[in-house]
Fold these 3 entries.
Entry 1:
Amino acid sequence: MIILKTKAAGVQAKAASKTTNYSNNSKPFNTKAQRNVPRECLPSPFLYYKKIFPNIILGSEWVSVRCVFHNDSNPSLSINLKNGGFNCFSCGAKGGDLIAFHQKHFNLGFHQSLLQLKSIKKRETK
């Protein structure tokens, strides 16, 4: 009888460890759908960031600009002009690609951001 109770408690603990409680019922950012987005359907990171930060110059892979996520007086946001990643050393905003930047900058969901970026890509190729 004691063995059964111990075994049942172990099964309950294992099941509890598999459940994840996300705040505000949000899903983790790195879902399978987000990892499988073909990058050729996205605009060029340099041209995308050039529209938001007109003064950037293609000189290196990483460029520092004033952060759009907080009131920034000194350039503290580093953006990657090759893959679209970004990191603010002041406010902590960061992401790995243009989709993450577009989501955060315009406060959109993943799907809506992807549709807008695809639209930008279509205009870019015309």
Note: The radius of gyration is 21 Å.
Entry 2:
Amino acid sequence: MVQRVWKQIEEVDLAKSTIIATSKMQSDMIYNQISSEVPIIIEPERRDTFPAIALSSLYLYNVQKTPRDEVIIVLPVDPYVKNKFFESIKDLESCLKETDADIALLGVKPTYPSSKYGYMVPNKEKYIEKYIYVEKFIEKPNECDAQNLIKNNALWNCGVFAFKLDYLLRFLEKNSLPQSYDQILKHYSLMPKISFDYNVLEKANNIVALQYDGFWKDLGTWNTLTEEMATNQIGIGVISEESKDCHLVNELDIPITVLGLENVIVAASPDGILVAEKALSPKIKDLIMDFDYPPMYEERIWGWSRVLDYTKYPNGKEMVTKRIHIEKGKNSSYHFHKFRDEVWTIVLGEGELALEDRLTRVKAGDIIHLPKGKKHGIRSISDLEFIEVQTGEGISDNDFVRLYHNWNDVIEHYKDALPKVIQ
């Protein structure tokens, strides 16, 4: 979804004025899938859409020196649309300025009475030829109520909205919330964990909507995603003939069998397994909102890593085993750890290992011992894969002191100490 939407943003010439807001956990994935040149604002932690939009707005204001009267447009990453949709987004700026509204939205004329989407109800007493004044919002009604909303010309809410930067800055001030980028970074954990829709949109007095007449679908839930999948199975497994309207998405290396079920999504990854009736799958966000498990699989700028095993012993010692893949020509950072030891077993490919003041060639079969405090980094000559075993107490992904990210900086810094690399 990220790749598709970014490509469409580029095709309508919006990329240069677009910034992606995401969590730290997903930043490397975005760089890996799109480009390391894409501007990203990293949320200190996940706290729903209002804090994320406030953080991004203050970044634009304080860091990029964006004027207060500039129009900001917020777009989710999961619309399934044609480029015409993104062209319509450009019209939100003129919509906002012509009506002097607090917030301008993009709405779609419903094609059927769906209970999956939110609806914008027009104000019949206020009318402008090009725009619709919004009286209220109805979130995911039942199909009967949705049918009545359609009869009253309600629109599906696309989750796209525009506001002047000044509007949000005044909202933050009025509610005694951080009013600078440095402040919000420092106090992000104290920001209300709430969506922009509930905290800002529903409190606005003057909201207008621009109607989009093309095809639109929100792929943010499993049931809507499966409606657009070209196949009912991805990955290893079997869906039996007795199963009806079932989908299997399996990212694991073990088979999954679906037998005798109906309207079910089965999704399995290293981070967890979901088995859900499709209609109820949107509730997963509420069910797992308090989960605080570290990711088991991560896409990184240099490749990917996957946790194979975790053990905590009675004496407090911990052991984490990872499988790590570094793509040809890429490198890890040059760093050291304060609290853990590591052992690497190279299982595939060749690489250059920087270890303290030496640069050596490593290959499949080599074993590398990395005690805590020892500076190290690795660059792949061919696709490189190794098993990493971490041991220590309080093992954490935050136990990193990064010295260099660029491999040329490693070479430059140690060129006097490093022996000539064997070619």
Note: The mean pLDDT is 90.
Entry 3:
Amino acid sequence: MGRILKTAASLVTGLALAATAAVGTIPAEAAKRCDVTFKAYQPIRQGSTGAQAKAMECLLTKAGFATTVNGRFSAADARELAKFRKSIGLDPLTVGGRRAWSALLSQGTTPHLKKGEHGRAVVRLQLALRSAGFVKVPIAGRYNAATVAVIKTIQKSRHVKQTGAVNADFWKALQAGKITATTVVGKKSTSKKPVAKPASNKNATKGEKALAYAKKQLGDPYRRGGTGPNGWDCSGLTMKAWQAAGVKLPHSSGQQYRIGKKISKSDLRSGDLVFFYRGISHVGLYAGNGKVIHAPRPGKQVSYIKMSHMPYMGARRPG
């Protein structure tokens, strides 16, 4: 097992080099080995330093994007990350979390894999799944029972036959950043909308009333510019939720950030507005236990998500 963990990075490196060579000349930086095996993968953004920042720089370079592999994620590196995200159909954000990690680590060929197989492609698959948040996937180099179980869970969430094997469509979804533990958990949690306490409760705070309204929208689709009743964007959801509590908000996450009382993370209460990403480009409502309810992005639904899965920028209490 120890030898497999040590060689996992070089296996992925060879595949990334092959993929880069197919489209053009490999940059000089790409000749360096990518050390990409970690127990957990952290979001990387401008200012990030260390081994994981260097790993993302290296993977971006091997994918054909011009970064400097030095372990210091610069503004230029962040712009290249945004270009990579855009190239695979993700929002061109300058932060690389689970979607970016798994997409970068899974780049390459799309072989059919099943239980019992082993080799470079299996390591690449397991690294991509681990970085996507499936922490029970071992980086073993062998397609074992634990890997099969995770694949079946993902297949169930995607409403396809639960074979436990990986085909080209599965690889392409990974390479587009469409498979993460968050999306799988989110689909399970939104299959039924939780019953919210009546917002008319005389003892409920404005924040609790706003949260109760948002809970009723769980499972509704994201729609750009949406303010309900059947489609929402992030600030449209928070605007209407607080409107239900008697508080008027603008339809803009950036403008909502300037309203009300600034709240520390340790003092968050139900319904507080929680903001994410540099430039304040996303907002949700605090739902307790370190989670928010939010309208994520096109193709997704109003759902719960752990705050730790997005870069936290601050919180406000409008009422």
Note: The CA atoms of residues 276 and 310 lie 6 Å apart.
